Fold each of these.
Amino acid sequence: MSDHPNSDHKPDRLPNERGFDPHEEAAYADDTLHRVHQQLQREKEEPTEGFSPIPIFLLFLFGGLVFWAGIYMANNSGEFRPDIYNPEWKPGGGGNETAAAWDPIKRGDRLFRNNCAACHQADGNGVPGSFPPLASSPWVVGDEARLVKILLRGLQGPIEVMGTTYNGAMPSYGDNSGGAGWSDRDIHAIATYIRQSWGNGAPPVSEETVAAVRAEIADRDKAWTAPELLEMHPME
Amino acid sequence: MLAFSWTGLILSSVIQYGSLQPVTEFVNHPQSEEQITGAFIELDLDNDGKKESFVPGVNQPGEQTFPQPISGLAQQGKEVYQNMGCLYCHSQQVRRKGFGADFERGWGDRQTVPRDYILQGRVLLGTSRTGPDLMAVGQRQPSWEWHYLHLYNPRITANPTRDPNKPDSIMPPFRFLFKVQKIGDAPSPDALKIPDNFPEDKAPEGYEIVPTDEGRALVAYLLSLKLNYELPESRFSE
Amino acid sequence: MSPLISFFTSIDPRQKTGVPLKVQLSEIDRQMRVPVIMFLCFAVLWLQIGTFFAMVSSIKLHNPEFLGDLSWLTFGRTRSAHLNSVAYGWANNAVFGVGLWIMARLCKVTVRHAGILITAGIFWNIGVAAGVFGILSGGMTSIEWLEMPMQVAPLLALSYAMIGVWGVIMFRYRALGHVYVSQWYILGGLFWFPWIYMIAQVMILWVPARGTVQAITNWWFAHNVLGLWYTPMGLAAIYYFLPKVLGRPIHSYYLSVLGFWSLALFYNWAGVHHLIGGPIPVWLISAGIVASVMMVIPAIVTAINHHMTAVGNARAVWCSPTLRFIVFGAMSYTFASLFGSAMALRDINVVTHFSQFTVGHAHHGAYAFFTMVMFGSVYFMVPRLLKREWPSAALIKVHFWGTAIGIGIMLFALHIGGWIQGEMWNELKDGAPVYSNLDVSQALVKWFLSRSFAGILLTIGHVAFLVNFVWMLAGGKSTRYKEGPTLIGDKEGSTL
């Protein structure tokens, strides 16, 4: 903006560019300074900067940080690949978890805590009036096919458990479209777990049994009702 | 400066994985044990200009792919989830086994990776866990009945016996997602069954508590949150 | 002259030449009076609104039935209303007022066409009000730091452009000579904020990026809005007021340069540390961690520079309301930055991530540093702009002690409580979690209660500030004819 009317002279011709000149007040008439309010009168000069050198230890510290940064990136960048999510990954394997031995009780414990305990409670006693108990329930320790069917497709409507009637809806854990879509192995683990916890002493349910029941009820697409199940598998 | 980081962090991400596609599932392919993380490849097999993602020898192009989009009702529920701000206490991401206890808490059987989120219009990772993670809540807690009770009054499901020695929930109630209505010819199938321990939450005689459309949609969304498939770059941990 | 040239002539804010400095400053204060006081009024108002939402949210965390039947005031909405009121209402208005005023003084120029600035300021606040209303009424986006419905973004962006441009114009027509460090920070911030805001709006809301790229953009924005907008403005204010009130130069120009450029270089990469362990490639996370750790450099450099400037003047710092707040803020900046670097390390992050520790850290930076500095700045500026004195030293003391003790308790509660929370989430025994979900949230209640108590102290401080501010605006006798500055300690010859 060279055509600016002000640009050919400096906008500010103070004797001391960087700050307040203590002599300047004397150079101006009183009526000019009168316009300066008292809050401004007592102000100190506008801020300026000193030029102390940077302490040498800081430079060493920063050098060290930069060195650490290089090492860290080299070790934790997963070769800048978009499909590496574990910082311990090394080219050609490593950083992968080793598979632990399969233990249905351990797996069942985790599944139960995270999926069932909210309703049936950690002690397996359920909630009176809302959610039936699992501990010593004949539905759990009885016929294994009946139990697996409930797990796979859920249960709807009134059900009598140890003298009390509950009216709720147990969701499906097996049906992949409407339910949680658990594998045969997980159904085997959870069934085994609930049959052997809280003093329940029923034998385990094998993975093969689950697979057989799943195949048998493949056409079934809705939850069971208690009378239906009792017709197929009468209570012992 | 800022342009550097924008290029480095965001543009490079868009280029590196902005075009990820759903892949076929891994879960029924036991031979995939040999596959190492990140072994998927993308090739245009049928020359239609679109690349298919698959792992050689494990799955075939054309199989059902994952992740899957959520249904329309669940999509409406996601809007409710967003405008209620659920994200400020509940994350939707699972960290790898060994880094935190996400796996042991049952929040997901594997680490979540970018491909899990590619079909979500808005990504709701969240950065706060005042409550548990919800990445797989539809799998962990598939009972809509439980969800309705829990949203209506979290104290009902947290401490059903009202035992003062047991920890209680600090989640706010969402009673405004429910309405009290007169029972018609027959009780509604999704009317809440409030336990006897909570008499003050029960509807008056002849009335019932049912979820509003928003409440139904929200529960449909929660039930749709599942992490029940494997991806080539992230497999279930044992 | 063509209309274009006459327009450029009319915005040339340079003053007549050959006028003594204090007369120039007096003219600047006079011309900046209306816009700056307007921004400060809005800021103080939003601070009260934000405090109200903060208290409601805080109580809800330990008492979930509190206002539990109102969908407008459910926790997710009130905490977002709190964040957006204090971030875009309080903090941005304070930045506009303080930043533009410092810029005007250091450039020795002023704003012509203050009407445009004032109009833009009013529209900014209409936008923020509409946004907060949108959050409460169900339009929340659930994107952290960008909760306002996307429809208000164009209004905010346009208003910002018409506000921020005046800072750039003033810098363009600055008085010749040395460019002071505060000017770098303000100019940098004025360019950085619109850039991150628009990119984030476009890539998350208007034309959403796919998948977790949204999350990266989100944290790139949310971290930079603190680091490249509030932080530079807060540092600019410290760099201006510390030497100004003490009457000594800043310790070292070289440290200022190093501090500024290392902040500009590293901060904008650091936001990814909010996604450690999350679903993005590991190299991005590692890059974010490295940048976060490198933030030690600007933190230490700035700390040394400020400390060496203030050292030996403890009494003056104690007596001046401005310096007491500003030095509190400067010290918090150092600690908050070092905490932030430590929190980015994977071994620490695995505990603190997702916990209240992060919430505590956000308040450490945004309140204990930034807000306290803004309070100090307001105590210096308003007497000059209004040519009056603060009516009550007692209220300033209440303000300082309420906020200082309040934020102290709050940081303690959230850091300790958050650490315990993180450890409880993670603790395993034989491959099974030791604490249930409910155990963890129950353990937080006592820390949430302490936070609400701290919130009451903060509220008392803010109300004292409001009363003093309104009293001064109303201009009773005690403010107009008062002789000498309102100090909060007795020291001969102290200034404010």
Amino acid sequence: MAQNFQHPFQCIHFVKRKNGESRNVLVASAGARLFSYAAESGQRLSSWPLDGADIAIPDANGAGSNPETEGPPGKKRKVDPAEQKKNGDAPAKKTPAWTNIPILTSTPDGEYLVALTGEDKCIRVFQIEEDGSFQQLSERPMPKRPSAIKFMENNDILTGDKFGDVWSMPLIPSAEPRPAPKTPAQRSTAIAATNLTVHTARNLKSLEMQINMKSQQQEHKKASEKPVFDHDLLLGHVSLLTDVAFASLPSPDPSSTKRRNYILSADKDEHIRVSRSRPQAHIIESQCFGHTAFVSKLCIPEWAPELLISGGGDPHLIVWKWATGELLHTVPLAEQGSEADAEGQPKEIAVRGIWAATRGADSQRIIFVALEGNPTLLPFTLEPNGSMTPHKPIQTSGNILDVEVHMNTVLVSVDCIRAPGSTQEWRSATSTTLLEAFQLKQGTTEWESVSDQMLGTINATGTVPVGLTEGAEEKEKEALNGVLYGLENLRKHGWAGEETVF
Amino acid sequence: MGATAKKQKREVYRNKVAAATSAEVGDVALADLKLPQKKYYRQRAHANPFSDHLLKYPLSPAHMDWSKHFPAFVNPDPTQTNLAGTRKLLRDVEVVDIGCGFGGLLVGLAPVLPDSLMVGMEIRVQVTEYLTNRIKALRAQQALKRQMTSTSTPSTPAPEPSPAPATASETNPNSKPATPDPTVDDSEVFPNSLIPGGYQNITAIRANTMKFLPNFFARGQLSKIFICFPDPHFKARKHKARIVSETLNAEYAYALRPGGLLYTITDVEEYHYWILRHFGYGTPVEKGQGPEGGEEGLEEVKREGSAELFERVSEEEIEKDECVRVMKDATEEGKKVARNKGNKYVAVFRRKENPEWV
């Protein structure tokens, strides 16, 4: 039992201190908490939420010990109306509302840290104080769980959610939100059915009941659960969104200096949609057709904004000229990333992340790709024509969870709990390696492992212990696995041998 | 027990239909060529548009194989193929009936727009199967009629369907006399005259258009979209499942060419106002007030978002539009509403040009 597992870093990100010059603070999320570290020394500066703060610290085993909050995130639990009333009387503020922090990002200038807390679907904006502590500027509960947080012009937040909707909202919520936007859905509380439109005996009976209910309900109208902050619906898919991107291109009219802004949205139904940005987000400019499984990540390198690299459940990446939806190249991943499994079947792979960077004196344009539940990081050079030349893969000590490129170093967060290559099996003993770093050997395309003081200190400090309740360990482990590795759930499983796409 | 018997009957019947429609059509088969019976294809009227459904759809519009849907319109040049390697058509599909159900609209429109290729999309698999068989039967019957009349009158309406063999190579063992089967519960009968186009211009596909419309139709490919008697999804919680919404209207706008029309008809007054609101029309145009929700909503709607891509077509123009008449009177739901003395609310919107970039 007592293997003393500790939560790996789910996300890592470099940000600036408040009014700082450079991104010299590393922020990482582990379990339900955020940690900040000095980028040079690796010394832990602070954590969030603070011990003893008004939001109770999610005791590392908070999820485990309380079966009530257990379960896949985002799923609605059925709550007994009587119980709900009880909770309403004494708000259960003391228990943590989330067990993980799946998104950690910052405004392009590095000034503001933006995090998503898992189960409560809150987008939280922070600044890092001089001493490295977290100052939360806002928390905004979203109607549905965001799957990506990006930034538009003026640092406005762009998110896409599990319901298929893309929203924009200001980074800092205005003190006085506009009067709650009345959506048509909210307005039409009247019963729409009439005896002209429903005819069967049962339907008529239920209509009658609804009318009766309605007349009784008139007095106590339930307060709307809608968020009260400014947020605008820009566009929507009838599908689960997996990623969004904001991009800007110069106008094709050479006499105009005005840039054209776009929103790209990817979903689990293989689509990548290219829309104009607001206020014309309802105009779809093109569609990028080519994926045959879900799309999970979009990457538009800032040094090549006309190109898009997308990946998902297909064994290849696709490089697009996205403005016209033109497929430029497909880049195989399978032969490098994963070998065949025991039965000789090629293992299904899913792209967990795509990161763009430039390296070295000659500014090599590099794309890193990590696969779900895989310890190999795949570096490529993105050629000017859009093709991608693979480098020698980088082996790490655990499944890659997140990658952050800082200065000349590639920092990789690895899973210290699960066996490398597996999203389910746990190691027999925890690994103390949370972070690894790699650098490009001068003048080559080979990457070598480097270790510095920062890594040593962070790895030695550790994160939060995973508390497993005796007797319920397997179930808890499964839930924790689900938090970190959810991509395969997006895959469609048709009849055996049946192609869904023809 | 009863359910199983019903299921068995369905299977027997459908196998029979499959055998009959795959058989070569000849004079003798005509006697047995009856429209498929709806009772064997009934399916619950609701489908979850969010689930995966094991659907088939093309990788992109350029991969769609329309040739098997419109054999009479296949480009005679076999080198003309699409990205999936299947034969191209002589013209593009440009009319879509979203949620076509049993196909009343398509069958009614086929002679009205004989030169337009039209496709009905329906998410319920059994209903789509019914419509596919219905169209097959109609086409075969028209082909035979044309053969018989062409001997006397040489003028045949274009396009020429694929030639049917003159003699039956196979006769159906269950053939019955040519008189209509009195056990047929549906009132549908074959049209006894030749129909322009011979139903070669309509087809049905099982699809979830809320997810996959862009997989079938390229930007600006369509000239007409019909949304007839959509599932009202009365509960507010289910409103995201409605087929008309601001976000979906952006997709309809993508597929419709400027000047193209989007037709809607519903018997649910509240849904009618919902449609108007989502196309940015808040002013009451109908006589009689909408329900509370509708009325309140009529005041503050702005023409922004996807609504700026559409304009409402005037009542006078609607009056003159033959398609509207078909939509009101020929659809199965339209007939049902008339039987129940319900109301029918029609709204038609024209796709405008995209505005300039801002």
Amino acid sequence: MEFAFTEEQAMIADTVRAFFAENATSARTRAAMKATGADAGFDRALWHAFASELGLAGVGLPEDHGGAGLGILELALVAEAAGAHVAAMPLLGLAMVGRAIAAGGSDVQKSEWLPGLANGDVIAAAAWGEGLHASGGLLSGTLSFVPHGGAADILLVYTGDDAWLVDLRGEGVVATNHVTMDQTRPLATIVLTEVGAEPLADGTAAMAAALAAGWLCLAAEALGGAQAALDRTVAYSRERVQFGRPIGSFQAYKHRLADMMIEIEQARSAVYWAACAIDEGSDEATLALHAAKAFCADTYHMCAGNMIQLHGGIGFTWEHDAHLYFKRARSIMSMLGDSQWHREQVARLILGAVA
Amino acid sequence: MKLGFSSADEAFRSECAGWLQEQMTGPFADIRGIPNLGDAIPRRKEWEQQLAAHRWSCIGWPSAWGGRDATLAQQVIFAEEYARAGAPNRINHIGVELAGPTILTFGSDAQKAKYLPGIAAGTQIWCQGYSEPNAGSDLANVKTRARLEGGEWIVNGQKVWTSLAHYSDMIFVVARSEEGSKGPKGISFLLMEVDQPGIEIRPIGQMNGEAEFNETFLTDARCPADSMLGAPGDGWKVAMALLAFERGVSTLGQQMQFRNELDAVIDAAQANGKARDPVIRQRLAQAEIGLRLMRYGALRMLSQGDPSAIDGAALTYKIQWATWRRNLGELAMDVLGQGAEVADGDHYAWSTLPNMYLFSRADTIYGGTNQIQRNLIAERGLGLPREPRGAQ
């Protein structure tokens, strides 16, 4: 049985944890939250340090196209650490688009796009292309709720059978970031008017890889965020004294923290199971991904809600970070399929579709 | 990080799976899949002896004592295949998994020679004398007394929830050997024969109609002076070490049983159309997810290099599976509907799923209630202050 980190994986986990703890500070995240336009919810300095100093933007991407190699498990470790600090950066888009090109792009497309993604120079976003109109290699239509869409240089659009790459820096593109509840990952509306788009060689494979990476990335972020919500609340409960005792000595309080840990341990198993299942090409991978996305999103929301409640009034203030976790958790719940939808996918796998 | 087992371990799996399947479809087919711990006891004693005859009774023990020196992975695999083959719950689980390892750790050579062969051979069944009417969750509050007199320990007191005591040959008893001592100090760990005038066993009727637990009354019950594990007054350490042996190995086997139970609920939902109900589908999916996460949690726990290290997956495991099974019991009843509230025959006896619904209410109590589990998780896992103790 080797369902434990290798030394290298433990080292990567330690390194990324230390990096985000030092760099994705509350002050910097809040500065990114205040920014407007293309920089809304985007700490560019953090991104460049992540990509160039740490050299980890290429994790999970092939080495012969500028990636760092390794598996999607290592990518999950990065997302977990970023999620623990609600880091304001477009990791989700990188994971989805990078893995989509690696899985469904031609060799030429890989050489063209992957190196820029892997070194952090090109910012990517992904969107479901519902209602999009394709004609003669030109795309038109409106894409809604695109995470970090306002900052993105390239966009992956997938529609089920097809996947295109769109260069957003050209003519015919209007990308508008919305005021978004989770200010660390703003959602944008992107309007395309007869924009040139490059179809990926294998659109089905690209879309499957994008969704797998997206679900796993969100699940891992949720795991990191939930664990941080627990850790910070535990620390607070040991310091805060009421009725002459640290509040963490009251059973009603302890049991709620214990319930958080019980869910988080399962969420941890879910993320590592799903990641290993993808890396090993296991036939459990689809089930594992739906399980991980649903379970981790729900766990994060429960833990972040408890974080607010267990901090009392201070937990409801703007000044305290609890709301950053709570809002990120909420946004993860709705993004790329809600928990009910993912559980229905699990139900289909074990029961078949409803007749 | 990897999901599966090594190819050497998989070869071991084929070996034990083959033997177990052969037994459960051949000579022991009559006890395949029987649900209750108290059923078919004589046949299950024969089954213990059959396991022993083929050196499968205590594979984790040293080969010198009848085991196979099996690795943790091999023990897990055996437990999985054991459950997969539908072999009945081990009637001597307490002897093999708890008493044996404790005697191996704390026993003298003479004690090992006296007690281990009977367990390995499947001829001596053991039960556990821990809980008392006033020492359940608060085990250190035991009141049963032991005094040394004329080369024997004389034991007086009452034990409760003694599983299978009425079929057992031996019992290990936690008793207070120092007059006036309180809490964990002054407790001793004694190994006693059940069949003696000083021990009376009374079955306890359970809410599911079965009676697997007992009250055990000790009235001047006796055992020789050398039947103590560890030093007099030092038994708490032994008692706690024993509980640690319970953790882990049997869990993946237990999950095979859970798999069978969930599959039975899924089959029932498909047969009666409830599988089309969107709410039931959500709950079945949730149960499936919970079971899978239980498996990978157990694998994380068992892949830890140091099994004694405090590990989140291990600390949260008991409450996780107990709660999962209780929820499955409720889901089973919702799927089955009123038909499940009517027994098949003239007795107050229940088929697998309604019985699981009733029995799962015990799962969240025995071996540390969900509330005690949360205390342990908060105190050991999260480092929060301990519960204040009342005046003794």
